Amino acid sequence: MAWITVDQKLIGGKLRDFAKRSGISQNEAIGILIRLWLWGIDNAEESGRIVAAEHEDIEEAIRPGFLEIDRSTISNIVDNLIECGWIDQEDGSLYLHDWMDWRSYYTSYEQKKAKHAERMQNIVNKAMFYVSYYTTYCNALNMWIKSVTKPGDLDQIKWGAKVPEEFQNEVLKDYMKAIASGGIA
Predict the structure, then answer these.
(1) Non-local CB neighbours of 119 within 8 Å, separated by 6+ positions
(2) Phi, psi (deg, nearest 5) at residue 23
(3) Is 20 helix (H, G, I), strand (E, B) or coil?
(4) Which residues have CB under 8 Å from 141's CB, separation 6+?
């Protein structure tokens, strides 16, 4: 779920100028900006550069918020977004102005989410390593038990016992080496 930051800094002269030029209320202007920014989360780079976008793409992005009778003004509204500094034009590309500011909390959230996912994946990897190790260890114990011919020999077989070399397969040896060197990272 995507979200952006909107705070009192949004309401000011720049917003009033955009609303007046566009012939809309400030509330409608805020709605247009929020729709544009939400669209920007999936369509703009972190720098604010709108990927492969032209004037018409911006029109399409904000069009769903308009009634059918108001749609003829959308091109002018995009012009006003540019003229009022909400969208910047640079080297043939369109940029969402101050995109890093408007998107900062979401970017921080995405980074924290990615770090959390990485930590969780490490936990799962470690758990699976030990599940696999103990499964392999139990299989080796089972082979050792099956090889016993005298009841008294069973006394030496218990959890944690060092499995004799003849019952250690290569996988178990690799696990034991990894554990001896500190386990998995």
Answers:
(1) none
(2) 70, 35
(3) helix
(4) 157, 159, 161, 163, 167
For residue 184, count other CB atoms closer than 10 A to its CB: 14
CA 184 to chain CA centroid, Å, is 25
> d(Cα 92, Cα 38) in Å, to the nearest integer?
23
Burial of 58 (0-12, 13-18, 19+ CB in 10 A): buried
The answer to whether 5 and 101 have CB atoms below 8 angstroms apart is: yes
Distance CA 32, CA 77 (A): 9
Report CA Rg, the chain: 31
* Model confidence pLDDT, tens digit, residues 137-169: 999 999 999 999 988 888 889 999 999 999 999
Q: How far apart are CA 36 and CA 3, in angstroms?
A: 12
Total residues belonging to the chain: 185
Give 103-130 pLDDT, tens digit per residue: 777 777 788 999 999 999 999 999 999 9
Report pTM.
0.61
Q: If we measure between CA atoms, which residue out of 27, 18, 40 comes closest to residue 102?
A: 40
Burial label for 32, CB within 10 Å (0-12, 13-18, 19+), is buried
- DSSP for 45-83, please give it: -TT-BBTT--HHHHHHHHGGGS-GGGGGGHHHHHHHHHH
Element at 65 (helix H, strand E): none
Tell me the residue type at 138. C
Distance (Å, whole) CA 4 – CA 101: 9
